[in-house]
Design goal:
single chain; alpha/beta; 2-enoyl-CoA Hydratase, Chain A, domain 1; nine-stranded mixed sheet; two-stranded antiparallel ribbon; globular
Length: 333
């Protein structure tokens, strides 16, 4: 078992101990009121993640919302990432919904630090932001951190202005879809697979054999279609000629300076510069900036499911299941 899984198991055990202790302490108190211990226990019991807001920058003027995207954009991740990765897709969707629908919030700043992720999740964010911007007239600024690539770049497209730090890596406009080929390893181990299928392409991307020319053509067609969606989004939102986007969209990453020269971003500047721009757009010299925070990454039911997967000690079953189906990714790797 590799180091990653040992760390994951250790974290899970600690959390289980904390949960049990919370139950014991709660049972031993009879205050009749909700204590901090009881709140933590309820948080562990909850299966629904939530978010809260805290003050990022004090001010007496209009309110600006700051939302962060940190990590890989995906609905589900492996057990260790579930504990350590601060990105939660469903919570993030709730946050942007709240930021745009809340009438007390006058502008939105999205801080992106992500290599991208699933094409479905990235496009879901992009489409939701487009819809919210059309319905609610609020300035929307993106601030890119160390990386805003592929899906991280796509979700930045609806912004009125895109800021990138001088050290940001961005771009990686493209699509990737991959699988493994275990056939030679299986042959050495004396493992054979028997497949019964209704059509010749039913087990496409089967990791136990080479892909056929027809399968390669099918999968490339899917990749090309998703690539077209990405290119169209960049051309539309950045007001660029489609051929110019295609020329830049060969999958490579760009520095902030390079991205600006290509028209992929608007300005080189840090998060404070992006907030200042948002304040300027709402004519505010002393804005109050609130930052959304995820309150609970998982509940007890999630914890138990993590335990069951981790005690597949070799991790073979989980790894094989994770790679059984093709996944289209807007991801820099």
């Amino acid at each position: 078992m590799n180091k990653k899984r040992w760390i994951s198991i250790a974290v899970i055990i600690v959390l289980l101990v904390v949960y049990v202790r919370m139950g014991v302490i709660s049972a031993g108190t009879n205050t009749g009121t909700s204590t901090e211990t009881e709140k933590l226990r309820k948080s562990l019991l909850s299966s629904e993640p939530s978010f809260s807001a805290e003050t990022y920058q004090a001010g007496i003027g209009k309110t600006i919302a700051l939302i962060n995207v940190n990590g890989t954009i995906q609905s589900e991740s492996d057990s260790l990432s579930s504990v350590t990765n601060s990105y939660n897709h469903q919570v993030f969707l709730q946050e942007i919904e709240n930021a745009f629908t809340n009438s007390s919030i006058k502008a939105v700043v999205l801080a992106v630090d992500s290599p991208g992720g699933g094409a479905y999740e990235s496009d879901e964010i992009y489409q939701k932001l487009i819809s919210l911007k059309a319905k609610y007239s609020k300035p929307f600024i993106v601030s890119m951190g160390s990386m805003a690539a592929s899906g991280g770049y796509l979700i930045s497209m609806p912004a009125d202005k895109i800021f990138a730090s001088r050290d940001t890596l961005t771009g990686s406009i493209g699509v990737i879809m991959s699988t493994y080929n275990y056939s030679q390893l299986a042959e050495k181990l004396g493992i054979k697979e028997f497949v019964f299928k209704s059509g010749q392409n039913k087990d496409i991307m089967n990791p136990m054999r080479d892909a056929t020319p027809e399968e390669e053509q099918i999968m490339q067609g899917i990749v090309d279609e998703y690539y077209g969606y990405f290119v169209d989004a960049v051309a539309k939102e950045r007001n660029m000629d489609r051929q110019a986007v295609i020329k830049a969209a060969d999958g490579r990453i760009y520095t902030a300076t390079q991205a600006k020269s290509l028209g992929l971003i608007d300005q080189i500047g840090d998060l404070d510069s992006a907030i200042s721009e948002a304040a300027k757009m709402i004519n505010e010299s002393d804005p109050k900036v609130i930052q959304y925070k995820t309150e609970s990454l998982f509940g007890l039911s999630r914890l138990l499911s993590m335990v069951s997967s981790q005690f597949d000690l070799l991790g073979i079953k989980q790894d094989l299941q994770n790679n059984m189906g093709p996944t289209v990714m807007y991801l820099y790797r």
